[in-house]
Structures are given as C-alpha cells and as structure tokens.
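Help wanted!
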Amino acid sequence: MNRVVAVARMQLAHPMITYGLPAAIVSFSFAINWTIWRLGDVAAHTPGDGSTGGLASLYVTVLVFFVQTVAQVFSFAMGLSISRREFYAGTAVTAVLQSAVYGVALTVLDAVENATNGWGVQLHFWAPAPLDVRNPLLQFLVLAMPMLACAFIGVGIGVVFKRWGTLGLYALTIVSLATVGLAAVLATWQDAWDDLGNWLLDQTATSLAIALPTGLTLVLAALGFLAVRRAVP
Amino acid sequence: MTAAATFAAVTMRFRGHTALTDVTTAIPADTITGLLGRNGAGKTTMMQLLTGHRVPTSGSVQVLGQPPYENGSVLSRLCFIKESQRYPDQFRVCDAVSAAASVYPQWDAQLAAQLLRDFELPTKRPIKKLSRGMTSAVGIVLGLASRAPITLLDEPYLGLDAVARQLFYDRLLADYAEHPRTIVISTHLIEEISDLLEHVLLIDRGRVVLDAAADALRATAVTVTGPAGQVATFGAVHRVLHTESLAGRARAIVRVSTTGAHRDAVELGLSVEPTGIQQLVVAMSLASPHTPAEPTGTRIPLQEVSQ
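Answered by r_m:
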C-alpha cells in the first residue's frame, strides 16, 4: 500500500506543476474572459447567457499533465522496483486526488460567482450555465467527474506511448479519428442527428456530466491497466 | 551455494532477433557476481528478466524462489540501477533520493547522505541539468543506499571519472562487507572491477559461456610462453583459448584442467603467468564458436602482444 502512496508522491512531487501551472493557466483564461465581459458589456448584448468555455483550459491542462506524468514517472518508478500494478494504482490515486481538489476549488469559485452576480459582470466562468446545478454536492460531482475522465484520457495516452511508442500514438490518433468519423457518417446516413439531439436534450445536465464521464473513466481505466501490464520501462 | 535467482532454460526472443538462448544458470546469494559480455550479448536483457521488466519467451526466471513479474514481495527486495535510467524532468537529486527512500524498506538515509557528499552531488539541482557522470552517481547513491537484498547494477559507472569510479568500488566493497547481499554488476571495465568479483558469469550472443567462482577462474587460467612445440604439447591436454606464435615461439592462454598443470608447464620449460579475468574473458569471447574467424594473415606479432 505505501508503495502505491509512494507513486502518488512521485507524481505530486512538484506542487507548482501539479497545481500551480493549471491554476495559472485557468486564471489567465478567467482574466481574459472577465476583461472581455467587462469591456464588451457582453451581458447587455446577450442577456441571460453569460457562459463561456474558458474553464476547458483547466481540463485540457490536467489531461496533458497525466500524459506527461505517465510517460516520465513510469520509467523512474519501475527503476525503483515498483510493479506496474502499484504504479497504475498510484496514478489512479493521483487522478482521484487531483479531481477532488479541483472539484472543491471550482465548487467554491462557482458559489462565489453566483453570489457576486458573475464577478460583477454576469460572467459564468467556473460552472457554465448548463452545468450550474446550485447544489454543492452535485455541483462538486458535475465538475470533478469530467476532470477524472480527462485525467484517465491522459493516462491512457501516456500508457499507449509507453507500451507502443510513437507509432502507437499515431495509430491511436488514426483509430480515434476513424471511429468518430464513421460514427458521424453513420448518423448522417441514418438521419439520426435529430434523434441524437433530442436524446441529449432529454438527459439532465447532471446525468450527462456525471454518468457519462464516470462510464468513460471506468472503461479507460480498465483498458489502460490491460495495456500497462506489458509495458517495458 | 544458495541461489538468489535462477534462470531455467530461458529463451528471450524479440521481433527478429534472439537475445538469450536456452540460458540456465544461478546467481549465488550474498555474492558479488560480475555479469560480463560484449555489447549486445544479453546482459541488460538478463537484468530486465530478473526485475520482471520483461517476461521470458520460454523457460522460467525465479528470484528469491518466486517469479518476479508483477510480484510486489520480490520487487520490494530488489533494486535495479541502470545506466539508461530516466528521471522525471523536474526531479531534483533530493526528489529522487526521497522517492527511493519511500520505496526501499532497508533504505539507509545516513549512507545516502554520505554518498551524496562523497560524489559532491548538488541535492537541489534538477537531475536533467547534471553531467552524464553525475547522473550515474545519482544512480549509484540510490543503488547502494537501498541496501536491497538483491542489487542489480547495469553499467552504473558510465561517464564517471577514474577517481569517482574508485570511490564507487571502495564504497561498494565497504558497504558489502558490513551488509552482505546479492550484487550483480554488469561492466565492460573488467580489469578495474575484477578484484571485487566473487563469481563470474560471461555471456556471448545470448549464451552462457562461463559460469564460475572468480577464485577458481584465477586458478585455472594461465598464460604459458615458450617454444611452439612445448606450448602445443602442454596445450594438448588442456583447453587452449588463444595462441599467438612467431618464429618458433608461442604464447597461449590456457584453461588448465588438472591441479599439477602449473608444475607440468614449468617442467616443459615454459614460463607461466597468471591470467587476469579480463584477458580470459576476451580470449573466451574470441574463442566462442559464434565469433567470425579471424582473417588469415593478420596475426598479431608476438612482441606487440607480450610487451
């Protein structure tokens, strides 16, 4: 067990990189959005919809962090005789921990946002309108679960790189593209876009933002584990 | 001899080439074993099998009585320091040391601190910024301070200067004397390290060609010089590994098989010198049936070799 914790500590060795960097990036994104809202008086032009997707920068940064950390810490950890299972468990602990910390931070920021009328400019940055559920616990899950999914997408990419190298990454890109492309072609051919749209509208924001990422996380975590079992540092 | 690890009929095939062929051997416990061989002989592959980083294509590898692959109870007693060890980009020397300290149950913090001073390693500097030799020194600190019951060192000295290498040998021997453990060290600098070795495992093209206690090797390997006829007579009853001859005189590296061989050689009028492990290893690697034959007419003159 403490070897699992040791792996998590290796990955979180530098708080400046694990928390500082993503926080800096998303703060920057927030500053840009706030300035635009303030100068452009966006709230007056589009009343009722002050949402922005600037928060995505945080999720992307976390994804990239996990690609990197798997690619780098894996070799080092195995050099210290950590088993692949322990490494993977430690990485999962790191992902859960990070998602929880960010989830709490974002929930708090969202509460402040709602209390200050969108930072005085009706900006909905920390939880864009469809994801603003006004219930702290639910809000936490809505913000944290997609982050966990992003973390495992990152872990998955990192594992593919360790197991199959650059060629594996190219293959992954091609396969992902082909899958999405084929699905789009299929939906168009079957005239299914409207049905799909209706189905999405029928779902509540919470089920989309919690159930979908949770399912994705579980699938990716399982696939990643299978792949890492034969990866060579 | 108790074995810390065993290879039983291990074959390791990669796409397109075979790294190890039917290797059966044992790593003696509480002994310093030298894993010797030329580049690409299969030394690193053997260490990767011992640490469970790879699994053999066929055959079985056992470490401390169990297969090492994904085996936490074996791995926690095993430390593998390799020349090509990568450290995470932002890791400073102190980060690597504290990570190792949290992983190895027998970690000796005092020894680590001592070694960091000995090698003059700046603990706050990112490992990425260190020179090749200093990066190797970080590995050596981790390897020795881990006090792991089985410590594998894969060419750990790369880029280290002669003074630092001597320091490494001294520290290794001193700590080993106080805390006996199984150490396997792969190296090309055989001459430098041969006094440390208690057991020698020589592999060539994925096969074990020599597996013996170092003392026994020193006792059985001799170099005899004298009239070519006498050398041939002596060689006929032993195993000649390498011969050079010039103008009726010959010099041969021979592995003797009888205890009175030394006296026999002297009686034949030959001069006998002990043969170092390095000379023996070179001769055996060249004598290996897989080595391409030396082109005729390029025999090295005796004088040049015996200077």
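OP: Thanks! One thing I noticed: Confidence is low (pLDDT under 50) at residues 293-307 of chain B.
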